[in-house]
């Protein structure tokens, strides 16, 4: 059986499905969850929930949820604690309980659909394709294969997700992405695509990007910077997307303090550098990090740092020294050479 047929068969065993997004879900995760919900409904599951932890803080993600009227609910531990045998649990655009989600690590998962690098994925149904540029590409394949009704909202969500996760087909796009986009284009709302592509930017995001520009340190073709403390978590990927375009820079990493954790975002068009591995190796002992060879992120709990000082300036200075030293060491760069 094909993956689509296997999924349909498993869905036939359930009466309810909880679809868990990763923390701070992006359009690829949200569109994939929306599509899986539609597929589940077509398979006879009347009750579907899309759940998430964290925040919808990126202006594009907020616009995506609002314009497409996606019903999102906070993930609560009772979802897995009180599960009935016919209640299915699914992950989209991520794969492991306790990693980039608040699902207890020992939880049994029924369905995993993902394209991010991962090892030892444990679920009853797994479709894990690292070679693809977006999870939405996989869900589009299922929608087509199972002849699920494709209205304008679902087509728009999936098409925008593919475009977003591949930077308009400039990053990681495969023939499958182009094929899926060609299929979706006929049904999608092009005016909504334009609205989603140009959301307004908050003042906090602009301030964070400005701070990252001011704090940049360049060592060879590597740029490391920080945004200080911010409430705009999604300003980090926007800042790093901007800074990696600086002439002579091939790898950019930006970090910042968000609530009680240090968040990192990395980009590298340099085929010789795998930023997913860099962040994982540099911070695996104190937090989590990983992703693709050219796009990655990480999170480190403040822990003892927060107990050391309540002065943000001192805290940032200490964190900047430690984070930068670990990154330069992992990249085999001398700190003395940094500008």
From TrEMBL:
Q: Which GO terms describe its molecular function?
A: 3'(2'),5'-bisphosphate nucleotidase activity
EC numbers on record = 3.1.3.7
One Pfam family, short name? DHH
Question: Where is the DDH domain positioned along the sequence?
Answer: 16-162
Q: Which PANTHER family does this chain map to?
A: BIFUNCTIONAL OLIGORIBONUCLEASE AND PAP PHOSPHATASE NRNA
Boundaries of every DHHA1 domain copy = 220-323
The first-level EC class reads: hydrolase
Coiled-coil region list = none
Where, by residue number, does the polypeptide cross the bilayer? none
Q: What is this protein called?
A: Bifunctional oligoribonuclease/PAP phosphatase NrnA
Taxonomic lineage per UniProt? Archaea, Methanobacteriati, Methanobacteriota, Stenosarchaea group, Halobacteria
Sorted alphabetically, the keyword list is:
Hydrolase
Superkingdom, natural source: Archaea
């Amino acid at each position: 059986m094909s993956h689509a047929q296997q999924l349909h068969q498993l869905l036939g065993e359930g009466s309810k499905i909880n679809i868990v997004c990763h923390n701070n879900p992006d359009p690829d995760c949200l569109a994939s969850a929306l599509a899986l919900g539609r597929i589940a409904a077509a398979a006879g599951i009347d009750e579907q929930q899309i759940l998430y932890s964290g925040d919808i803080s990126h202006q594009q993600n907020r616009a995506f949820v609002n314009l497409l009227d996606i019903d999102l609910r906070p993930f609560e531990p009772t979802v897995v604690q009180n599960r009935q045998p016919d209640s299915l649990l699914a992950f989209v655009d991520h794969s492991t309980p306790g990693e980039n989600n608040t699902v207890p690590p020992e939880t049994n998962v029924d369905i995993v659909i993902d394209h991010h690098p991962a090892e030892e994925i444990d679920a009853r149904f797994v479709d894990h394709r690292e070679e693809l540029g977006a999870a939405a590409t996989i869900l589009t394949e299922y929608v087509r294969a199972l002849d699920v009704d494709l209205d304008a909202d679902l087509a728009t969500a999936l098409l925008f997700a593919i475009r977003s996760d591949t930077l308009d087909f400039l990053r990681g796009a495969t023939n499958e992405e182009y094929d899926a986009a060609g299929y979706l284009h006929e049904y999608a709302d092009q005016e909504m695509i334009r609205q989603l592509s140009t959301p307004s930017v908050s003042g906090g995001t602009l301030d964070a990007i400005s701070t990252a520009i001011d704090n940049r340190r360049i060592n060879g073709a590597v740029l490391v910077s920080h945004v200080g403390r911010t409430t705009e978590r999604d300003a980090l990927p926007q800042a790093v997307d901007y800074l990696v375009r600086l002439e002579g820079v091939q790898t950019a990493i930006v970090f910042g303090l968000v609530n009680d954790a240090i968040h990192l975002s990395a980009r590298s068009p340099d085929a010789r550098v795998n930023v997913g591995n860099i962040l994982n190796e540099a911070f695996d002992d104190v937090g989590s990090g990983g992703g693709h060879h050219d796009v990655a992120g990480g999170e480190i709990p403040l822990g003892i740092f927060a107990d050391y000082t309540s002065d943000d300036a001192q805290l940032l200075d200490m964190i900047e020294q430690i984070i930068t030293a670990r990154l330069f060491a992992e990249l085999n760069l001398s700190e003395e050479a940094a500008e």
